[in-house]
Every structure is written in structure tokens, then in C-alpha cells.
Amino acid sequence: xxxxxxxxxxxxxxxxxxxxxxxxxxxxxxxxxxxxxxxxxxxxxxxxxxxxxxxxxxxxxxxxxxxxxxxxxxxxxxxxxxxxxxxxxxxxxxxxxxxxxxxxxxxxxxxxxxxxxxxxxxxxxxxxxxxxxxxxxxxxxxxxxxxxxxxxxxxxxxxxxxxxxxxxxxxxxxxxxxxxxxxxxxxxxxxxxxxxxxxxxxxxxxxxxxxxxxxxxxxxxxxxxxxxxxxxxxxxxxxxxxxxxxxxxxxxxxxxxxxxxxxxxxxxxxxxxxxxxxxxxxxxxxxxxxxxxxxxxxxxxxxxxxxxxxxxxxxxxxxxxxxxxxxxxxxxxxxxxxxxxxxxxxxxxxxxxxxxxxxxxxxxxxxxxxxxxxxxxxxxxxxxxxxxxxxxxxxxxxxxxxxxxxxxxxxxxxxxxxxxxxxxxxxxxxxxxxxxxxxxxxxxxxxxxxxxxxxxxxxxxxxxxxxxxxxxxxxxxxxxxxxx
Length: 484
Fold this sequence. Notes:
Layout: E1 9-15, E2 32-33, E3 36-37, H1 38-48, E4 53-58, H2 62-72, E5 77-80, H3 87-97, E6 104-109, H4 117-129, E7 134-140, E8 149-152, E9 158-162, H5 169-172, E10 176-185, H6 189-194, H7 209-216, E11 221-225, H8 238-258, E12 262-263, E13 269-271, E14 276-277, E15 282-283, E16 287-290, E17 294-295, E18 300-301, E19 305-308, E20 311-312, E21 317-318, E22 321-324, E23 327-328, E24 333-334, E25 338-340, E26 345-346, E27 351-354, E28 357-363, E29 368-371, E30 374-380, E31 391-393, E32 403-405, E33 416-418, E34 421-423, E35 428-429, E36 434-435, E37 444-445, H9 457-461, H10 466-474
Parallel strand pairs: 1-4, 1-6, 4-5, 7-11, 12-15, 13-16, 14-17, 15-18, 16-19, 17-20, 18-21, 19-22, 20-23, 21-24, 22-25, 23-26, 24-27, 25-28, 26-28, 27-29, 28-30, 30-32, 31-33, 32-34, 33-36, 35-37
Antiparallel strand pairs: 2-3, 6-10, 7-10, 8-9
């Protein structure tokens, strides 16, 4: 929405409450949905309006909430609410902190994470076109329990808002509720907020009482019915948090689908709001894409995959994999059952295969770690192949050490590289080799330990066993007659 030059806008976000129904030590507004705190989603919506001023009111767990505000909206003014309770008091201290701001004041709640321009744009338009000093958003719900009821007069105009605990039985039967979104003209707002009382069931200074005060002054209160209940749905407990997360995820999945991404099973695909996905990528079932994960065009991710802060290159394939802070190059192949820990960088056309764990490892273009290996604190050059069941022994019990493997290396199966050690370009290693010393380019590294066969050992030391008898038969030794 384009800001109006003749009607400056200030946005105030109320985020001071404790949220006791969440039953959590974490402030309610910091519980996450789609990879971001609820409060961050509200700040995104607020900043999209390009307001002249943005203020957030904090109190419970003040430092944690303030830190989140400044992380997601560095320009925001953090306003501390004192011990006087109530949303009316919260807006009062915010208006005072805005220091003589003149224009429209939009009030949002930090626990309404799905709010966006679908309701905010029409709300501001209605306020500016209606010749009113107060405009609010309402919604009609099947079960209004717990919400403030919107009481209208005989002509249909809003008369007042009654909180659930203060409502009569007749008022509680009203299905139209207050959605907690308001626009006020700044003129006279400070004095109206200062005059609010606390004669109610909770002993708080309700912001909702401003509506009755406006009507008592002979002013008309504008009301906009929410076009979609989801965008005004508040979160007060864990069940509502999960419901809001599902609604937001549905919207995120649909947005990616419309942008050219194939998502085979939206119900089992979870994508954070911060994830980017290129055209013609394919996301298969039971996949979670989190934080700053970025997937380039044509990549195939899933099924059964979780990526956190991971980059997937164009045309790469990632199957049944858990990866965090990893980079997967274009055309690379990962999984199934791979575990990429932080610091993993797989080059273009490379492979990290079945039951392979990597950590702080750089694997060059075209290099492969196909099977059953642990590659930690390691750098592998280009076009190398690491044999099955290879371990880089990077920890001596006190310090971590690095292994360096050159390009065009072919290592045998069941190798152990005892770091720090360097394997030169073009090296081959024999099966079962334990490499403790650097291997020069072009060499073959083997452990020389001649095989020793002790004949007759089983018959001598395990007489009467199935193994001994079977071995004897294979050598043509006649069996004894048990009757003799």
C-alpha cells in the first residue's frame, strides 16, 4: 500500500502481554510460526505499509522481546509499558513516545501473525474515506467465547465493545467480535486514552473503551468486517498456535506453487517464510525447509528431508537427508539417509551417498563419498572417490585435526585417515588401510601385514562343533562311526 502524503501513518504494535494460556517461559509473541516469531510476522506487515513511525510496546520479558523487535525492524521505537495494566495504557505510553505525531495511528497486536494487507489496506482506506476519528475491524465467528463483543445501536452503528468477562448473557450471545485492529486519528487521542478507567472485571484500562468514549463525544465509529477470519485470528494457546502455523504454511506452499514450484504433497510439506525456491524445483512429501534455506531451479528435494539454512544448487537431488548450514552444488546428488552437519560444502556434480555423515567438510566438484562413511574436518579435491566405510579420525581426544585429500584420488574400502594427514593428487589406497602418514601424489598406500593361516586350528580348539565337522568333511576326512 502506498502511504498517503497528507495523512502520515504511525503503527503501534502491542507486545507487552505475558500470554499465560501458552503455559510457557517464552513470551507469547516470540513463539515461532514458519521460522519467525509471531511478532516478526506482524512487523513485516507493518513495515509493508511504509509508516512514518513504528513503535512496539513491551513489558513482559522486556529484553528478549525488544531484541526481537530490533532484529526484525531496526528502525522501530521500543516503548516500555509501566505497571499500569491494560491495552489502553499500552497505547497511551506509545502515543506519548511518538512525541507529537500528527496523522493516523494504526494499532496491531503482536499475537495476530497472519495479519497482512488484505485487511490493513482496506482498513486504512475506510478510515480515511469515512470522516471518522476511530475505525476498527470486526469479525463474525461461530464461537465468540473469550472475545470482546461488538455492540451496535438500532441504526447499525458501533456503540461500544464489551469484553467477554464483563458481558451480560445477552451480550455474550452476539457473534460479532472485536478483531483488535484499530486506526485512530491522532487529534485528541492522548487525552482520550488518559481518561480511561479500570472499572471492569480485570481491573485494566481497556483500549476498547475508546470506542464508547468516541460515541459519547458524538463521533461515529467506523467498522470494517474482516474479509478473511484467518488474517485476524489471534493466538492465545498452543492449539491456536498450531492452527495458525497450518494456515500460514498453506499460504506459503500455495505461493510457491503459483511461482512454478512442484509440491507433491502440501499437507506434509512445511516451508518457512524465509525460504526461497526457484522455478521447476520439485519438493517431495514429508519435507521441511527451514530458516534461510535456498533451493535453485530444477532441484529435487525429498522425500523425508529436512534442510536448515542449506543451499541447494540448480538441478541437484537431495533424498532422505538431514542437512544444516550446508551447501550442495549444482547437479550434486545427496542421500538417501545422509547427514550433512554444519560446514559441509559439496561441489557441483558431487555425491554424498547412503549413510554418510559429513561435518566441516569441503568436497570438490565431481568427487564422491558414496557409502557408509564419516568425513569430518576434511577437504577433498575434485573427481576423487572415497571408498565405502571410510572414516576420517579427526579427534585426538583434545583437539580436532584436518584431513586433506587431493584430486583424482581413489581410496579403498574400510580406510581410516588419522588426522592430521594429507593424501596427494592421484593417490590410490588399499582396502583396510589405516593412513597415519602423508601420502605423496601418485603413490599407493597400503598397510603391509602378511596374512597368516593356522591350519587345523578349528579342529584343535573347537572339536565337536558344527564348524569343525563341516571343515573336516570339506577336506575328505572320514567321519567316525558313532557305534564304535
